[in-house]
Specification:
binds flavin-adenine dinucleotide, alpha/beta, 16 strands, FAD/NAD(P)-binding domain
């Protein structure tokens, strides 16, 4: 089999599989590689996504979904609660099945999927242009050539480093997360919980996302600049003991969550970065699946247009960045700004915000509000937060 492709996609997470799927649909010769022996294993994710976010995939396979979300519970440091009904707000996925399903969908449309195949470097031609990748495939050193390379290799993205892009994240630009899959009794199915406290989850929060049948993703993210010697696992253990009377740990996982910053790079010559590799994550909540899917979809579409029209220059690929940021740029920048405020908030501030939300949300129809509108109202409601904004601006 030839080792030449129109496009090589590195990493079979949601971003990489989505890009491959779009390219395969347009009948391009695309290679999707995944370093692990199975797509979707191991992974670290709380698996929540909005219904709108998941709709980016087109037809949804019911097996991808573990549970529906129709309620949100926010708990302040002093235990004050706000519980909001939000019918059809979102879903908790079964990402092992979802990730695998998306990659297999790309394969069924014609993409070549290779597992146990790890990209280990880029190949440059004699003009210095990237023309392929070096891989370790089932222990063998091999090379593949392509006109375009899509890097979907997640938060650790080595492709960024090989391309000479600054890969570092400062200690306040990353969430350090730990999560258990717990079997528990005292949860409300369909209700996702967020627990805020600078002591319990400094610069982050703890979550409980029910998956149905008494199982739940229970995790915690913290910002390393505030955690000193404490590890996310220790903080999570403390939270679990406090929150649940009875529980059994079925799985554990750990990972990092990048924040979106101005350094985030989406295109360099014929290299396109998607999903966590491009850092296109909601910096406040750490949610990244929707943006992984959307960036993969747009990167696949623009690459397909570039490949189809033999007359356009490589500059055409920059349209991926333009089109993606036209849809998501403002939101990413706003969440990044909110994160800066969040990191400066005290437990008293969290208590006041929850108290405000209790009154405010009781007077509104939630279906008519977006999370962005709610956040803007919260910021306007609190003089101290307004002062923080002024300081940051
Ligand atoms: C604890 C935790 C909880 C989270 N919870 C949520 C949530 O509830 N909702 C949400 O929206 N987001 C959540 N996220 C974020 C979400 O998981 C990511 O944003 C999303 O997975 C990004 O998708 P991706 O395709 O860009 O990267 P990934 O899903 O990380 O996929 C990258 C793939 O590339 C492969 N790879 C890496 N390097 C190579 C290589 N050199 N060669 C070949 N393959 C390679 C990896 O094995 C992996 O399969 C969470 C993250 C963490 C850490």
């Amino acid at each position: 089999m030839s080792n030449r492709y129109d496009c090589i996609v590195i990493g079979a997470g949601p971003a990489g599989s989505m890009a491959s799927l779009i390219l395969a649909k347009e009948r391009h010769k695309v290679l999707l590689i995944e370093k692990h022996k199975e797509v979707g294993k191991p992974l670290c994710c709380a698996e929540a996504i909005s219904s709108k976010g998941l709709s980016i995939c087109g037809e949804v396979d019911p097996d991808w979904v573990s549970a529906e979300i129709h309620k949100v519970l926010l708990v302040s440091p002093s235990g004050n609660e706000v519980r909001v009904s939000y019918p059809a707000a979102g879903l908790v996925l079964n990402r092992k099945i979802f990730d695998r399903g998306l990659a297999l969908k790309a394969r069924s449309l014609g993409a070549e999927l290779k597992v146990k195949t790890q990209a280990v470097g880029l190949i440059k031609d004699n003009k210095g242009k990237t023309c392929g990748i070096k891989v370790k495939e089932n222990g063998k050193d091999l090379e593949y050539q392509a006109k375009v390379i899509i890097a979907a290799d997640g938060i650790e993205s080595l492709v960024r480093r090989w391309a000479g892009i600054n890969n570092s994240l400062s200690l306040d630009e990353i969430g350090s997360a730990y999560q258990y899959l717990l079997e528990v009794e005292d949860i409300e199915e369909g209700c996702v919980e967020f627990h805020l406290s600078t002591k319990m989850a400094p610069g982050g929060y703890a979550w409980v996302f029910p998956k149905g049948k008494g199982m739940a993703n229970v995790g915690l993210t913290a910002t390393p600049v505030f955690t000193h010697d404490l590890k996310s696992k220790e903080l999570l253990d403390f939270f679990v003991m406090k929150r649940f009377k009875k529980f059994a740990i079925r799985e554990w996982m750990t990972g990092g969550i990048p924040a979106y910053t101005r350094k985030s790079k989406l295109v360099k010559e014929n290299l396109l970065f998607v999903g966590d590799a491009a850092r296109v994550v909601d910096s406040l909540s750490g949610a990244g699946i929707t943006n992984a899917l959307l960036s993969g979809k747009i990167a696949g579409k623009v690459t397909s247009e570039f490949l189809r029209d033999g007359n356009v220059s490589q500059e055409y690929l920059k349209r991926y960045k333009e089109e993606f940021l036209k849809i998501k740029g403002r939101e990413l920048r706003f969440y990044s700004f909110c994160r800066k405020i969040y990191l400066r908030m005290t437990d008293d501030d969290f208590d006041q915000v929850i108290e405000f939300l209790k009154l405010y949300l009781n007077t509104k129809k939630l279906e008519e509000l977006t999370p962005l509108e709610i956040l803007k109202t919260v910021l306007r409601s609190n003089p101290k937060l307004l002062l923080l904004i002024r300081h940051l601006v």
